Structures are given as C-alpha cells and as structure tokens.
Amino acid sequence: MNKNIIAVAVGALGFVLGLGFLGNAIKNRNKSENTISVTGLGTKQFISDLITWSGSFSKNNFDLKSAYDELAQDRKVINDYLLSKGIKQSEIVFSSVDIQKQFRSYNDTNGNYVQGEFSGYNLTQTVSIESKEVGKIENLSRNITEIINRGIEFTSSSPSYFYTKLATVKQEMIASATKDAKERAEKIAENSGSSLGNLKKATMGVIQITAPNSNEDYSYGGTFNTSSKEKEASITIKLEYEVN
C-alpha cells in the first residue's frame, strides 16, 4: 500500500516537473523567435598615402668578378639617377645580388633535354623605394626609360599603393555599418507594430578594399587592392535584436 502511494507521488511530481520544463521550452522558443536579424553596410572612399615601387637590373659575363663589377657600376648609375629625381637615400633599398650560372641547353635527336656547356654568370639585383610622396614615385615609375637609355638592362614593376590610416577608416566604417543596421531593424519593427528590445548578438564581417567602381570580387578572407591609388573600403555588421 505504502509503495503504491510513493509511486503515485513520484509520478505526479515527475508530471509537474515535466509541465514546467515544457512551459519553459515553449517560452524560450517563442522568445528566440521574437528577434530581428539585420545586416548593415559601411563604406569609405580614400586616396592612398604610401607607395612602393621596385625594378631589377642584371649583367651577364663569363667571369664572375667582371659581372659583379659591371653590376656595381649600374647600381651607382641608378642610385645617382634616383637621387637626382629627389628621392631620399634612406628610401632607396638595394637587395642582395642573385647569382645564377647559365648553360646552353638543347634537345637531342630523341627530344631529350640536354644541358650543354657553361655560358656565363647572370647577376641580378633589385632596387626598391617606399615613400609617402605618391605623385613623385608615380612619375618616376612612368619615366624609367631614362635609365634604360643609359644602357642599363632595367625592368620596372608596377607601383603598389597603401593607406597608413586604415585603422581609423575601419572604425568609421564599423560605426556607419552599425548605425545602418540599427536603422533597418527599427524600420522593420515599426512596420510590424513592435519595438526593438535588447541587442542579442553582433557579428562583424571582414574588410574589403577595392578600386572604386570596379568589378573586383570580394573574398572570404577579405580583399586588399594595392594596384589602385584610389580605394573604396566596405564592411558589414550583422545585428540581432529582441523584439518587444
């Protein structure tokens, strides 16, 4: 008799607890459904304030020392030329010399590759410039044929453009994107006859930097354009609000 009473009591208690858990689950489910998720966009256009540019030059000779001496002469001509264009010595950086042995190669009658006799040394060196005088370095890179006209085998690369105040731009875009997202959420809540509650979650996307009015693709890890002096940065902020 006592065992039956205990069993009934335990069963009743379990039923009551079960109703409590079910009630909380329904409440929490409804609470999670009463939310608004919106994505805001922040953009900023700016002009690069830092430029880098580089070029390489080389010499060929059967004698290694002669090749090195000739390369050193070209290096002095290039350095003097850059200084004459107003480039500071501290902005000019020459790399170490790359030395490669050259061989005359050919394919035999069976089509097999054959490395032939030694044909000399090829020495290559790179000169690089980093400067905040963007316009000056741009003009230099466009008129580099002046070095070639001095008998130097010189290959110029395209300039790369950067912005040193990117952290400030990012903060401005985050503020703009957050404001945009909140205004969107408020408009959605207003149109549905509700009001915004507490902010539950905020998720920031990666910064994307492209050339203005370009068709560059965004990437999952973020895009960083260095080929354009003018740039446009964008970032997204996703906000999730409770709705009252």
TrEMBL record:
One of its GO terms (biological process) is DNA damage response. Signal peptide: none annotated. It holds the Pfam family SIMPL. PANTHER family: SLR1258 PROTEIN. This is SIMPL domain-containing protein.
